Known about the structure:
Elements: E1 4-9, H1 14-23, E2 37-39, E3 45-50, H2 55-61, E4 66-70, H3 71-77, E5 82-86, E6 92-99, E7 114-117, H4 120-129, E8 135-138, E9 154-159, H5 163-167, E10 170-179, E11 181-185, H6 187-192, H7 194-208
Parallel strand pairs: 1-3, 1-4, 7-8, 7-9
Antiparallel strand pairs: 2-3, 4-11, 5-11, 6-9, 6-10
Amino acid sequence: MSRLRVALAKGRLFEPSVARFRAAGIDPAGDAGRRLLIPSSDPGIEFLVVKPADVPVYVESGAADLGITGTDVLRETGADVLEPLELGFGYCRLVVASPAQGRYPQLEGGITPRVATKYPRLAQAHFAAAGRPVDIIQVNGSVEVAPLLRLSHWIVDLVDTGNTLRANGLVERETILECGAVLVANRASQKLKLEAYLGVMERLEAVGR
Length: 209
Ligand code: AMP
């Protein structure tokens, strides 16, 4: 039987992803530590641990057969992969937020809003669809601080509890996307390794119910 390589994202989704595979009887061998390729208790499956934004890249290219990623990252990259399974964790929202005190959606004097985000494509598409001009500023983290530092007027970012927004004096104005963790699959390997693929899917589905 062919071997499947599964790309997992470091960060928030990592523990629940591993827990789901464990429940399905597929246990990563030992602590990931510094190793990026990790064998599992199932000789037919190995794990690859990468940055969240890289999961769609590895799976689309076929360097990994399967992966777990958030739909936020997936839509932002626009990767051409299959999405056979919603996993029921990692729920959050991609939202537009702005300072509680400031005007919204118009700024004083008709200035074009600057919007800081890790999601330039999704943010641009959202405002373009509404015919609202904005200048997108791409940052890679700590987005919530951008309005405080006058880097931007607004932000587009992920929200879970809303605590981070509140702590930075921001309020949620619009939802762009409801997000959650999904299993993604490479189009070719789903066909070429069908038996192994269906086996894993069945086990993951069974423990998700
Ligand atoms: P919260 O304070 O609970 O609203 O969480 C917001 C912070 O956590 C922001 O910095 C987000 O970028 C991050 N965050 C929330 N949910 C997720 C998620 N599902 N995946 C990755 N980052 C997230």
